[in-house]
Amino acid sequence: MNRFLLALALLVTSLPNSASSFAQTELVQSHCFPADLEFVELREVRSERNITRVDSLAELAEGSLLAEAGFQKYALRTYDTSPPGGLTIEVVTLKDAKAAYSLLTLLRSSALVKGPPGDFGSFKAGHVLFSQANFLVRIQSGVPGDLPRRVGISVSNRIRRKDREPALIAHFPNTGYDPSSLRYYLGPASLARYANTFAGRDLKFRDEVEVAQARYNVENQTGILSLVGFPTSQLAEEYFDHLFTLAGARHSGEQHIYFKKAGPLLGLLEGNFEPRIADSILSSIEFKYSIQWIFDKSHYSAAGLWGVPRGLMGTVVRSLLLTAVLCGISVIAGVSFALFRIMLRGYAPNNFLDRPERTEMIRLKIDEN
Pairing state of beta strands 127-132 and 221-229? Predict the structure, then answer.
């Protein structure tokens, strides 16, 4: 027995990477940071910080932007690395995916691209910034190589959930569009700090309004297109009148301002564009209301029969079949009960159901005077 225990102890001590193997299988953590020993370059956690209160955001350089976007939680870890250089991971939890995407467009240091890691990101040497669902993640390192990107993929895998870019971004016209200049704003603080033109900076947020800006270049004519999204078309009309008056006071020199309203959207194009070029850009801004049936939420299919969507056709057919089945059951039940009464009357004329005192009220009395 002692020899067996000794052999078992020697076997365990001869596996120096056993702890690392178990760490590699760890899939989900509440804090989203990499597992211990997951990366050989990460030695130990030098410092750690967590913020859950909005009033504590003043300690951060982007605190006002985080508060405006809908801050929920901030977590920071700094690692010692080998080779030296250090690595910092910041994970910000926000109220929704729009907030994370907005901060990504404002804090990026390069053009946005699709992940992985994340849904969308800004990547360059030693720096990774990406948004995924309602999370914003920033990783910075002085270690040569692709360590920040590999760590970013690890964090992204722990978040798991995905999301799309805000619907407002899809309304940017393609003609002359420069995606590397895209900015997406959710409040006055971000507009005042990053907006390129007066149309964004002077817009007073009294309602739930979102603004996106991008640079356009067509035939050596350049400018900024601002797309403003409102909750309703009525609010868009109100702001349109206000901005039209404001634009008239600001119009000067070779800088021109063009407007277009499409449903709850406002398009404001500013720059040295000729009317012809401005019209080619703004004419692409459209808004169509779409109504999605309840049956269509999970499985949408454009295919149909005789012009009717298959989902709607299936609902009608199932309803008719159910009605037919219920009618059939009712007829069978009625005929069966009638046959039962006839047979019962032949075999037992004086049965309980056919006694005169029970049938007096329902008899037609056709053969009686």
Answer: unpaired
Give the distance, in angstroms, between the CA of residue 256 and the centroid of all CA atoms in the same chain: 36
CA dihedral 15, 19, 20, 21 (to 10 degrees): 80
Residue of 257, 94, 106, 122 lying closest to 189 (CA atoms): 106
Q: How many helices (H) and strands (E) does the chain have?
A: 11, 14
Q: Report how far residue 291's alpha carbon sits from residue 305's, in angstroms, rounded to the nearest whole number.
A: 20
Q: Which two tokens stand for residue 224?
A: 């900024």
Per residue in 237-263, pLDDT (tens digit) is 877 777 766 665 455 556 788 888 888
| DSSP string for residues in 222-273 | EEEEEEEE-SSHHHHHHHHHHHHHHHHHH-BTTBEEEEEEETTEEEEEEES-
What structural domains does the chain harbor? Answer: 20-159 (3.40.1000.70), 167-295 (no CATH)
pLDDT, average across residues 297-314: 61
- Read off the pTM: 0.68
Q: What does the alpha-carbon distance between residue 197 and residue 270 come to, in Å, rounded to a whole number?
A: 8
Provide the strand spans (E) within the chain: 42-51, 71-81, 87-94, 113-114, 120-124, 127-132, 135-141, 177-185, 210-218, 221-229, 256-262, 265-271, 304-305, 308-309
Phi then psi for residue 60, to 5 deg, are -100, 150
Cα–Cα dist 215/39, whole Å: 40
CA distance 317 to 323: 10
Integer Cα distance of 150 and 39 in angstroms: 9
What is the number of other CB atoms lying within 10 angstroms of the CB of residue 315?
14
Q: Are strands 113-114 and 71-81 parallel, antiparallel or unpaired?
A: unpaired
Positive or negative, the Cα torsion across 350, 351, 355, 361? Answer: negative
pLDDT of res. 312: 73
Distances 295 to 155, 305, 364 between C-alpha atoms, Å = 36, 16, 51
Long-range contacts of 193-202 (CB under 8 A, 24+ apart): 193/65, 193/106, 194/106, 196/224, 197/224, 197/226, 197/268, 197/270, 198/246, 198/250, 198/270, 199/224, 199/226, 199/228, 199/243, 199/247, 199/257, 199/268, 199/270, 200/226, 202/246
User: Which sign does the torsion angle of CA 302, 307, 310, 311 carry?
Assistant: positive
